């Protein structure tokens, strides 16, 4: 038994040596082919792609790996965080627009589109503003669908106290469970909405 283990150990060391030599020769061939400036460009390109979440890790890992500060609350179900992003034209932006997964709040007034606020639209926006604007939050994404058609990031927003903004809006009767798109918390959100309706909270008060 000892002799057999010793034999495997020698083969293992030999295999590692061959891999190290192959890697070294590959690096030398690449350096010779593209030159040092070309190799630097390749490395920089890989770093930039990784930062843009195109290579290695992806958007989900990037956005979930740390906390982000909420710069602004647009309305009840849309916020802006201090994470770099790109817009629809591919231009870099300093912030990321976030759409809350699985909930739909009443609309606020839109002067550009000449639309007045829907009932409880302002209340939902104010509620979200008090809970998260200017505060650090964490994001949870669904791997199957990261963006909506407006390129907003689709997320569950975890507040500093550990509660989830999406659920807090539902529980207060200021949002409906959005069943237009499949997600892992749909049944839970429908249950929370049902409870708010039963308690006649927010827009279910009548």
Can you tag this structure with a few keywords?
disordered N terminus; 206 residues; five-stranded mixed β-barrel; alpha+beta; 2 domains; OB fold (Dihydrolipoamide Acetyltransferase, E2P); two-stranded antiparallel sheet
Can you give a write-up of this model?
- The chain is α+β, with helices and mostly antiparallel strands and 206 residues long.
- It has 2 domains: 51 residues; 147 residues, OB fold (Dihydrolipoamide Acetyltransferase, E2P).
- The protein contains 5 helices and 9 strands.
- Strands 1-2-5-8-7 form a 5-stranded mixed β-barrel.
- β1 and β2 form a beta hairpin.
- The radius of gyration is 25 Å and the shape is elongated.
- The N terminus is likely disordered.
Tell me the number of helical segments per DSSP (H or I, 4 or more residues long).
Answer: 5
The CATH topology of the largest domain comes to OB fold (Dihydrolipoamide Acetyltransferase, E2P)
CATH architecture of the largest domain: Beta Barrel
- Major sheet: order of its strands? 1-2-5-8-7
State the helical fraction: 40-55%
The geometry reads as elongated
User: What is the CATH class designation of the largest domain?
Assistant: Mainly Beta
Rg value: 25 Å
Number of strands: 9
Helix-strand topology string: HHEEEEEEHEEHEH
Strand content bin: 15-25%
């Amino acid at each position: 038994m000892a002799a057999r283990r010793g034999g495997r150990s020698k083969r293992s060391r030999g295999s590692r040596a061959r891999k190290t030599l192959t890697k070294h020769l590959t690096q030398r061939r690449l350096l010779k082919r593209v030159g040092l400036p070309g190799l630097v460009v390749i490395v920089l390109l890989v770093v930039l792609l990784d930062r843009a979440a195109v290579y290695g890790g992806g958007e989900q890992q990037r956005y979930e790996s740390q906390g982000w500060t909420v710069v602004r609350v647009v309305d009840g179900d849309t916020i802006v965080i201090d994470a770099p992003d790109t817009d629809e034209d591919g231009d870099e932006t300093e912030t990321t627009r976030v759409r809350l997964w699985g909930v739909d709040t009443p609309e606020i007034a839109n002067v550009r589109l000449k639309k007045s606020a829907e009932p409880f639209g302002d209340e939902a926006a104010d509620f979200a503003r008090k809970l998260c604007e200017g505060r650090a939050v964490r994001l949870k994404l669904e791997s199957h669908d990261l963006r909506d058609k407006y390129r907003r990031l689709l997320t569950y927003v975890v507040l500093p106290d550990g509660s989830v903004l999406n659920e807090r809006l539902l529980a207060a009767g200021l949002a409906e469970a959005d069943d237009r798109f499949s997600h892992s918390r749909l049944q839970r959100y429908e249950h929370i909405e049902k409870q708010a309706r039963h308690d006649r909270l927010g827009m279910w008060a009548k």
